[in-house]
Write a structure and sequence with these properties.
about 500 residues; Alkaline Phosphatase, subunit A; about 25% helix; globular; alpha/beta
Length: about 500
C-alpha cells in the first residue's frame, strides 16, 4: 500500500518507542473506534454465526460487552454529533445528513459547540481524528486531523489533513489504519492522547479490500424471519419509505437486473448485500488488530481505554428492508465494546442497562477524570463498566427528522422501554406503532390500535412527552404540519441512474 502526500504532516518526528508501561501517563489514553452503519449483531462476540471478528471481540472480552446500547437518531451525522456532544439531535441541531466534500455548504456542528474532545484537550490531552468524520463542519478540538471528504471513497481515497488535500492509495480501511498508527508513533510522549479512529465501512456501497473479495462466496446467507413481511397494519408512512431490498439498485452491475422477478431480485440483493457488508467489516477488524497490537507492543495496553461502536445500525433484509432511519431494532441497536485493563474488569457482559450514544461523551470524560458539563444530556456509564449496578433510566427517547430525503423515511420519534416500544410518525396524517418487545421481538404485530392496549399507549404517550420536555424538545403552537410529498419523480435528490460503486 502506497501513501501519497504524507498525511499527518506537521507532527513531531517519530521517536524510538519505549516498550514498557512506565511510558504511559497516569491519566488514561483513549482510542474511540467508530464504524459507519454497523448493526450490533455484525460482530462475532454478539453471536454472528458467519462473521468472525477476533479483534473486535478482544475489546469486549478484555472489558465489557453491552447488549442494550442504542442510538437516539439512526442517521450518520446526527448520531455522530450526539456521540461527540452528549446531546440529542434536537439540541445540538444536526438533524440531517447533507453537504459537500469540503465543509463548505452544510452547517454541521455549530462553531461554538463543545465536544468531549474539546474538554479533554483543554485538560492536557493530545487529540486527533483519522478516517471518516462525516459532520461536514471542519473538525474542531483536534491537534491533528486526517479525514475523508464527505463520505469518502473505498479505494484510493482522498483525505484532508489539517486542511491540505492528499491522495492516498489502498483500501479506505487500511488507509485509516495507517493514519492511526502514524499518529500513535509520532504523538508527544509527555501527554495522554485521545484518538478518534473512524472507519468508512460498512457504509454503502460495500466495496471490499481485494483480499476479501471472494470471502463468503460459498456461504448461504440465512433469510431473516421477517424477510417477507408485507408491513400490514403498519403506518402508511412506513410502507411509503423507499427502502425495499428488492428495489435497491446497487447490484445491477453484478447481474441483479431490474427486469428480474421481484422475489428473485430480492433474494439476490440480500446475498450481495450481506456478503459485501461482512467483507468490508473484515478489513475493519484487521485494522483494529493493528492498533491493538501497537498498544501491547509499546506498553500502552493497560492504561488505554479502547471503545468500539457505530453511528447507527442497518437493516439486512428484516421486514424486506435495507438502510436505517426507522426505530426498529436492527436500525437503532449498535455494538458497544469497552476495554480498559487498568480501570475496568475483564469478561463482563451487561444485558440490563439502556445505554445510549449521548452517554458516551460523559462516560469518556468520567473515565479520564474530567467533570462532564451540566448541559450534557447523557449520563456516564463508567460505574456500569466498573461492575456497579447504579439506578438507571427505564426508557429513552428516539427521533428522526430527515424528511423529505432519499429513502423517504417519514419524520418519527418514539419511546423504548425494556418491554415496550411506541413509535409516532408525527406529521399529518399522524400514525402510531406499539410493539411488545418481550412477545414480539421481530416487531411485526402493531398493537397501537388494539383497545386492549389503550392503557399502555396512553402511558407511553405520557412518557414520550415527558422525555421530550425534559430534553427541551417542545412542539411549536398549532397542529402538526402535513407531510410533504417524497419519492422518485418528486424530489431532486433522486437521480435517474443507479449509483456507482463508490
Amino acid at each position: 500500500m502506497k501513501m501519497i502526500g504524507g498525511a499527518l504532516t506537521g507532527l513531531p518526528a517519530a521517536r524510538s518507542l519505549l516498550a514498557h508501561a512506565g511510558e504511559a501517563p497516569a491519566r488514561p489514553n483513549i482510542i474511540f473506534i467508530m464504524t459507519d452503519d454497523q448493526r450490533q449483531d455484525a460482530v462475532g462476540a454478539y453471536g454472528n454465526p458467519i462473521l468472525k471478528t477476533p479483534n473486535m471481540d478482544a475489546i469486549g472480552g478484555g472489558g465489557m460487552r453491552m447488549t442494550e446500547f442504542f442510538v437516539t437518531n439512526s442517521l450518520c451525522e446526527p448520531s455522530r454529533a450526539s456521540f461527540l456532544t452528549g446531546l440529542y439531535s434536537h439540541t445540538h441541531g444536526v438533524l440531517t445528513n447533507g453537504g459537500g466534500p469540503d465543509f463548505s455548504d452544510h452547517p454541521g456542528l455549530r462553531a461554538d459547540q463543545q465536544t468531549f474532545v474539546h474538554l479533554l484537550r483543554a485538560t492536557g490531552y493530545h487529540t486527533a481524528v483519522v478516517g471518516k468524520w462525516h459532520l461536514q463542519s471542519e473538525p474542531s478540538g483536534f491537534d491533528q486531523w486526517v479525514v475523508f471528504p464527505g463520505q469518502g471513497r473505498y479505494h484510493d481515497p482522498e483525505m484532508i489533513a489539517n486542511g491540505a488535500r492528499l491522495q492516498m492509495r489502498g483500501h479506505a480501511d487500511d488507509v485509516t489504519g495507517d493514519q492511526a498508527l502514524a499518529f500513535l508513533q509520532s504523538r508527544p510522549r509527555d501527554k495522554p492522547f485521545c484518538l478518534l479512529y473512524q472507519f468508512k465501512s460498512p457504509h454503502r456501497a460495500w466495496m471490499p479490500a481485494a483480499r476479501y473479495a471472494q470471502m463468503f462466496d460459498d456461504v448461504v446467507i440465512p433469510v431473516p424471519r421477517t424477510f417477507e413481511d408485507r408491513l400490514a397494519g403498519r403506518p402508511e408512512a412506513l410502507r411509503k419509505a423507499e427502502m425495499a431490498i428488492a428495489d435497491m439498485p446497487d447490484f445491477a452491475s453484478r447481474g441483479v437486473s431490474p427486469s428480474l422477478p421481484v422475489a428473485e431480485r430480492k433474494r439476490l440483493n440480500l446475498e450481495h448485500l450481506v456478503k459485501n457488508y461482512y467483507r468490508v467489516l473484515l478489513s475493519v477488524d484487521d485494522n483494529v488488530g493493528r492498533v491493538l497490537a501497537y498498544l501491547k507492543a509499546n506498553g500502552l495496553e493497560a492504561n488505554t481505554i479502547v471503545m468500539y461502536t457505530s453511528d447507527n445500525g442497518f437493516f439486512l433484509g428484516e421486514h424486506g428492508l435495507f438502510d436505517k432511519r426507522l426505530m426498529y431494532e436492527p436500525s437503532i441497536r449498535v455494538p458497544m465494546l469497552v476495554r480498559y485493563p487498568a480501570g475496568i474488569p475483564a469478561r463482563q457482559v451487561d444485558t440490563t442497562h439502556l445505554t445510549l450514544n449521548i452517554d458516551v461523551a460523559p462516560t469518556l470524560l468520567d473515565l479520564a477524570g474530567v467533570a462532564a458539563p451540566a448541559w450534557m444530556q447523557g449520563r456516564s456509564f463508567a460505574p456500569i463498566l466498573r461492575g456497579q449496578r447504579p439506578a438507571w433510566r427505564d426508557a429513552f427517547l428516539y427521533e428522526h427528522f430527515e424528511y423529505p430525503a432519499e429513502h423517504c423515511a417519514g419524520k418519527n420519534r418514539g419511546v423504548r422501554t425494556k418491554k415496550w416500544k411506541l413509535i409516532h410518525f408525527w406529521e399529518q396524517p399522524e400514525e402510531w406503532e406499539l410493539y411488545d418487545l418481550e412477545r414480539d421481538a421481530d416487531e411485526t404485530n402493531n398493537l397501537a390500535y388494539d383497545r386492549r392496549h389503550a392503557g399502555v399507549v396512553r402511558e407511553l404517550r405520557r412518557r414520550l412527552l415527558e422525555l421530550r420536555r425534559e430534553s427541551g424538545d417542545v412542539d411549536p403552537p398549532g397542529p402538526p404540519p402535513v407531510a410533504k410529498p417524497c419519492g422518485k419523480g418528486v424530489n431532486t435528490f433522486y437521480t435517474p441512474t443507479p449509483r456507482g460503486p463508490e
